[in-house]
Specification:
The complex is a heterodimer of chains A (about 180) and B (about 400). By secondary structure, chain A is mainly α. Chain A contains eight helices and five strands. In chain A, about 45% of the residues lie in helices and about 10% in strands. Chain A has a three-stranded antiparallel β-sheet. Chain A is globular, with a radius of gyration of 18 Å. Chain B has about 400 residues and is mostly helical. Chain B is elongated. Classes of the chains: A mainly alpha (about 180), B mainly alpha (about 400).
């Protein structure tokens, strides 16, 4: 145990659902090191699967996918609306979301009645509710505050993109040729 | 009608922005559209828009789509000239390249026949046509490469709000329409290479078997064949490289956008109750309680140690010597109906109770009174006698006499 640096704070964060990315030093460096396997082996008997995402961030696998706290559907709807907005702007989605800073007051979530109606379904009614979602995203390690009103999304937001890709293949049932993971 | 070249170019030199706009428009233009463009680009007050319009028609820059029509086209020779002048390029379609290949095959057949019949004139003509075809292929390949580069640059610089899925479709169109089929044609084991090899074989055959002795032309064609073959493959590999990153990133973005749209559409249609867990991104959520720390354990121990001693409660196990008053009262109540029924009928129940049980308290007398009047075997009614007082062991009751008898 003594050979694994920062194991206790790393465990505390990961077990709360936090994702560790380059903004979470020194824990990120510890996990990125050659000892990643040791950390994974250490946590495995405790029932936690340490995942190293291909975009280089770390998190514990969800323990029970069927038990969904109220906050997670809110986060999902918030994220999907942001992606939908980026797509309508004609921007590359990942560049749009991960490549710029955002202001709460300039978020597109109440710019369309359709978006507002979708948010109402998950009990999000105003900018204050949006801020609660953003605070939760910060706890997950998906965003970083840069000021009172300004923030940027962090690398672990790729988990949303991954889910979108899964949904587009599973729910739309496209042909293999159209699948995003098929070779070109 | 012949157009005077000097007049034509003089007009063009004064109307370059207008000509550029006309060149950028594809397809038919209505009179209204042309008039709008003329007004937009007529900077000088020296020329009226009507004059510009008339000159465009006189110089055959614009030609009607059909006689008397209100729609016009930019004349094809002018369009080609403008394309050349503005360095704009059009991509070569696979059909055009296939046409060149077919042309080379036809020319090869003609060349073979000319060689077999020793027809030097026909061999020379075939050589000339092969050379022309190769030059066209080379020029078209150059133009295609420029067109692709222009398209990629325009695409990257495009700041118009076009949905990412539409942008993806544009790139897919270019990839599928021009680049991919062309690579299939020009790759070393495909149709173009086979046609070139056959042409080269026939050219060598002509040199060996024919009287045709224009060896420089022969060498020129052979050199050109090798050049075009290498150039074609390189051009389309370059085109593919230009488009591939755009294609990949837009393709990914398009699928991400599609996934988000599917999730939102399901939420809109089915509501949050039926949305399910699939669109939700799960996270680990351990509800943990910390093990008590040393300080907490010390505090708990100190509280136990410092707690003042207290004697344990003593429980008496001795039997009670007296009959409880409640039990005595219950025994009396149970026996009361039998005694009362034996004395029936009674004109005044309360008087009978007070006189018969003078040591009973007011509460006990009233309990006996209630027990008797609610017995099913006894019927009770108030008499017409006046109200009176009834003395008990600890008080006085006041009321009308109540008669009871068997029901």
């Amino acid at each position: 145990m003594s050979a694994l640096p920062h194991v206790r704070p790393i465990f505390e964060r990961l077990s709360r659902g936090t994702h560790l990315s380059p903004d979470d030093e020194p824990f990120f460096s510890a996990l990125s090191s050659a000892k990643f396997g040791d950390y994974a082996d250490y946590f495995a008997p405790l029932g936690f699967e340490l995942i190293r995402h291909e975009r280089e961030f770390f998190y514990f696998a969800p323990n029970d996918p069927d038990k969904v706290p109220d906050t997670l559907p809110r986060i999902a709807v918030f994220s999907y609306i942001l992606i939908d907005h980026a797509a309508n702007q004609g921007e590359l989605i990942e560049d749009f979301i991960l490549g710029r800073n955002f202001l709460i007051s300039a978020l597109p979530h109440f710019s369309l009645d359709r978006y507002a109606a979708l948010l109402r379904q998950v009990e999000v009614h105003d900018a204050a509710d949006l801020k609660l979602i953003l605070q939760h995203l910060e706890r997950l390690g998906w965003l970083k505050w840069l000021g009172i009103d300004e923030f940027r999304f962090l690398r672990p937001f790729h988990r949303v993109f991954d889910r979108c890709l899964e949904l587009s293949t599973q729910l739309a049932s496209p042909t293999d040729a159209e699948r995003p993971d098929s070779t070109v | 009608m012949k157009v005077n070249a000097q007049t034509f170019f003089n007009f063009c030199s004064g109307h370059v922005p207008l000509l550029r706009q006309l060149a950028e428009r594809t397809g038919e233009l209505s009179e209204a559209e042309i008039a709008g463009l003329i007004r937009e680009h007529t900077l000088s007050q020296e020329e009226l828009p009507e004059t510009t319009w008339r000159r465009l028609c006189e110089l055959q820059i614009l030609v009607p789509t059909e006689p008397g029509s209100g729609y016009y086209l930019l004349a094809e020779p002018v369009a080609r000239l403008l394309t050349y002048l503005f360095d704009e390029a059009n991509p070569t379609t696979p059909e055009i390249v296939r046409g060149y290949i077919a042309s080379l095959e036809t020319l090869g057949g003609q060349l073979l026949r000319a060689v077999e019949t020793d027809n030097v004139t026909f061999v020379g003509l075939a050589f000339h046509e092969i050379n022309n075809t190769l030059r066209k292929i080379h020029a078209d390949l150059e133009e295609t490469q420029r067109a692709v580069q222009n398209e990629v640059a325009a695409f990257k610089a495009n700041r118009e709000r076009v949905a990412v899925r539409d942008r993806y479709r544009q790139i897919v169109y270019w990839m599928e329409r021009f680049v991919e089929p062309m690579v299939d044609i020009v790759r070393p084991d495909a149709a173009m290479a086979a046609a070139f090899e056959e042409t080269e074989r026939l050219l060598r055959l002509a040199r060996e078997q024919s009287l045709f002795n224009d060896h420089p032309a022969l060498e020129r064609n052979l050199r050109y064949l090798r050049l075009v073959r290498q150039h074609a493959l390189r051009v389309f590999q370059e085109c593919r490289k230009e488009f591939q990153p755009l294609y990949e990133s837009l393709r990914r973005s398009s699928f991400i956008a599609t996934g988000a749209a599917i999730a939102l559409e399901r939420l809109q249609r089915e509501g949050i109750g039926n949305w399910g867990t699939q669109p939700v991104i799960g996270t680990c959520a351990l509800r943990m309680q910390h093990v008590p720390g040393d300080a907490a354990i010390s505090l708990a121990l100190r509280r136990v140690i410092e707690h003042p001693p207290e004697l344990a409660p003593v429980i008496s196990f001795d039997e009670t010597p007296e009959v409880p008053s409640g039990l005595v009262s219950q025994i009396w109540l149970n026996a009361l109906p039998g005694e009362a029924i034996a004395a029936l009928p009674l004109d005044d129940l309360l008087e009978w109770l007070a006189e018969r049980y003078p040591d009973k308290s007011t509460g006990e007398i009233l309990s006996g009174f209630s027990r008797l009047i609610f017995l099913e075997t006894i019927q009770a009614r108030f008499s017409e006698k006046p109200e009176r007082d009834y003395s008990t062991a600890d008080g006085t009751l006041h009321g009308h006499p109540l008669q009871i008898e068997l029901a």
